[in-house]
Every structure is written in structure tokens, then in C-alpha cells.
Amino acid sequence: MSFARPQYLVETEWLSQHLDDPGVRVLECTVYLHPKPEGGFRAESGVAKWKESHIPGAGFADLTGELSAKDGPAHLLYMMPPAAQLAAEMGRLGAGDGVRVILYDRAVNMWAARVWWMLRASGFENAAVLNGGWKKWTVEKRPVASDAGARPARRFVAKPRTDLFVDKQAVLAGVGDRATCLINALTEEQHRGTGGVAYGRPGRIAGSTNVVARDLVDPTTHAYLPADVLREKFKAAGALDAGRVITYCGGGIAASSGAFVLMLLGKDDVAVYDASLSEWARDPSLPMERD
């Protein structure tokens, strides 16, 4: 069984043959998360590692900088920025009409999937995730470089879609709604509320199921698992039979990988709860469960 939308995922072999193509723009999106004693994470940009070595010609898309909203509470780290802000930054990075944007990271594709989802929410459809990212690229001993990764700036025109990110009110409306499937992309321990990093109250949004983002990839190569295996995971969680799916995690990153896979599988009405448990778990009026 193959993916319903294979155009959103590219293989390392394809990219190795298109590194010098002026119509292809490669961007690394890595962020490192360091758990904090009080809960949540401290974010560290992956730009230092990118400067040391990266896929030849790749630029760096910084989710700790201009690709996240600047206002709002400090614990909401990666909220979707205003359309004009995202458009300015993506244009500066060389993304725009007529360019195929290939995204990768060093952390099981989650950050690449987040930027992919943001681009799609901006109306940009010509982006893809590099399957396996940095891990698969280096396991295969493909070339790396420390070049500046510069490309001419382009005009990026955002055409915002309002259906791909949702707020807590939309999630609350989905709690107890049989037509809506809420999926937690965090670990099983975090979902159960028995361990791992908490974002306030431990546990899960009431009524949600669990498809762990890290379990969507091969542990050796970080490439996504075969389509039939992924389909079974989401079918078991009730996602494929639901009218609408909303994915969440701690801050909308792992959730983006789950949403991305659902798109690969051909599922349409899918949204990411942008603020996720970083917001939900801090509000005692919002329903949570734990085992």
C-alpha cells in the first residue's frame, strides 16, 4: 500500500539528485528541547549544529525566531505567526512561487512537519518533508557541507487557511463529539499521566486517543513507517473513520507530524491544536483525564 499523497514526502535519493536545482530550496528546521524541572521545555535553536554541517546548500528555518509568533504567553513557544511575518521570513529564506521547498530536521521529522503544516496553512502547497531527514541522510553517508546555505530572496505570498490550526474552543467542542477524533501525539506515559514531561496537569484531553509521534518512524533511519503500518495505527485510534481529526501534544510540534502523516494517508479534515497542552493543562476549567 502506498501513500495517497506521495508528493508531500521526498526520499534522500531524489534530493541527492536535485541539490543543485535552482527550483529546489532545502531548509533545515531543527530545534532541541530541554526539559525544565517545573514542567515543559526550554527551546534551543539548532542553528549552531546547522552551521557545523548540513545538507549541501540547505538554509536554516528557525522556529525559535521569526517563524513563531512573538506576542502571547511565554509558555506558548511555537504559535503560528501572523501571515505577514511568516511570508517575510520564508521569502527571505528563498521560498516562494515556483520553488519546491524541502524540509528536514534532526529529530524524527517533527520540526520539518511543523514547518510543512505552517506552509500549508499559509496556502503554500509546494513543500515536502525529507523522509528520515538528517538521520537517514547521514546513515546513508551522503554529502554534508558547512556552506552559508544562501539563496536569493523571493516573494512569498501567504494565502491563510483558517481550518488547519484550531484553538481551545474548537477542541472543547470536539470533546464528546462522536464525529471528532482527538489524538495525542505524546508518549504513552504522558498520555496516561503516569510519567514524562507534564505541561501543568498530567494526563490527556478528555476522550482523546494516543498515536505516539516518535512511533511513526523507523528508529534507525527516522524514515516514516510503511503506509499500511501507519494506516493501522491511526485506524486503531479511530482517526480514519472520524469526520474530523484534531491532533495535539505539548506545543503543536509532535502533533504536526501526526497531522502530516494523516495527510499522506489521504485523510482530509485534519487540524492541529496549536497551543496544545501548554495551554489546555494550565486551565483547570478544561477537562482532562489520567489513568
Summed up:
The chain is of the alpha/beta class and about 290 residues long.
Structure description:
A five-stranded parallel β-sheet has the order 1-7-6-2-5. A five-stranded parallel β-sheet has the order 8-13-12-9-11. Helix 4 crosses helix 9 (254-264). It folds into two domains: 6-139, Oxidized Rhodanese, domain 1 (3-Layer(aba) Sandwich); 165-289, 3-Layer(aba) Sandwich (Oxidized Rhodanese, domain 1). 27% of the residues lie in helices and 17% in strands. The chain has 291 residues and is α/β, with parallel strands linked by helices. Strand 12, helix 9 and strand 13 (270-273) form a beta-alpha-beta unit. The protein has ten helices and 14 strands.
Strand order of the largest sheet: 1-7-6-2-5
Integer count of domains: 2
Percent helix: 25-40%
In the CATH hierarchy, the third-tier topology of the largest domain is known as Oxidized Rhodanese, domain 1
Segments where pLDDT lies below 50 for 5+ residues?
none
Strand content: 15-25%
CATH superfamily of the largest domain: Rhodanese-like domain
What's the shape? globular
SSE string, helix = H, strand = E?
A: EHEEEHEHEHEHEHEHEEHEHEHE
Largest sheet: 5 strands, parallel
Pairing-aware structural class of the strands and helices?
Answer: alpha/beta
Rounded mean pLDDT is: 95
The oligomeric state is single chain
Task: Work out the radius of gyration.
Answer: 18 Å
In CATH, the architecture of the largest domain is 3-Layer(aba) Sandwich
- How many beta-strand runs? 14
- CATH uppermost class of the largest domain: Alpha Beta
